[in-house]
Amino acid sequence: SFAGLIPELVGRHRVIGVELQGHGRTADIDRDSTPAALAGDVVALLDHLGIDRAHVLGFSLGAAVTIELAVSHPDRVRSVVPISEPVRPDGMHEDHNDPSKHATSTRMPTAQDYADMQETYARLSPHPEHFTEFMAAGPHLEGWSDEQLAGITAPVLVIIGDHDFVTIEHGALMKELIPGSQLAVLPGTTHMTATKRLDLLVPLLAAFLD
Domain limits at 13? Predict the structure, then answer.
C-alpha cells in the first residue's frame, strides 16, 4: 500500500513499515485480526526497537490500528493519520455493505484489483495457500464509543477519498468526535487508490507532520 509513499517520507522522517498479521511477509495466525490485537503487536514492536512515541499512519485496517493506538496507548503516539477507515461499521457506504452491488459499483475493488492482491499475497506471504481463507475472514471492527474518541489527545488527520468505502458524512462525523482533528477528502479517489495519490498525500503529510 505504501510502496510509493515511503520513499517520499524517508528524507524527513525515520520510517518503519509494519506488515500486520496476515499482511505482506507476516504470517497469519489463529487469532482474530482485531484493532486491539494488532495495536498490541505495534506496541511490542516499538518496545523492541526502543521507540517511546511515534507518528502512526495506516490505511484501511491499518487505519483502525492507528485509532486504537490513540485510544488505548496514547502515551505511544505523537500523531495519528487514519486513511480510509470508519470508526464504526455504519460509516461504510451502502455499496460496500450490499454484496449485490460489488460487481457494478465504482467504489469497490475491480477484478484486476483482486487479482493484484492475490498475486502480491502469493509472492510475499509465508503461507500463500491461505489467501481465500484470509479474505473470507476479514477484519473484526466493532468501532469506538463517542467517549473513547473524545478522549483522544494526539493530533489526528483523517483522510478519505471522495469515492471511498467510507462516506464523506462519516468522515465529517469523525472530525466532530475527535477533538482538534482535521479532515482531508481526496478528490477523484477510491479506497483502492487512496494511498497512491502522492500528489495530494505528500503535501498534506508534510504540513501535518512538520
Answer: 6-209
Q: Is residue 10 assigned to a domain?
A: yes
pLDDT for 139 equals 61
pTM, two decimal places: 0.86
What does the block give as the cell for 47? 518496545
Our count of domains for the chain comes to: 1
Task: Give me the average pLDDT of each 10-residue run along the chain (210 residues).
Answer: 91 90 60 84 96 96 95 98 94 80 78 74 69 63 93 98 94 97 97 94 95
| Nearest Cα to Cα of residue 64 among 43, 84, 49, 42 | 84
> Contact at 8 Å (CB) between 22 and 28?
yes
Q: What is the CATH number of the domain that holds 111?
A: 3.40.50.1820
**Residue 1 resides in a domain:** no
The rounded distance, in Å, linking the Cα atoms of 182 and 163 is: 19
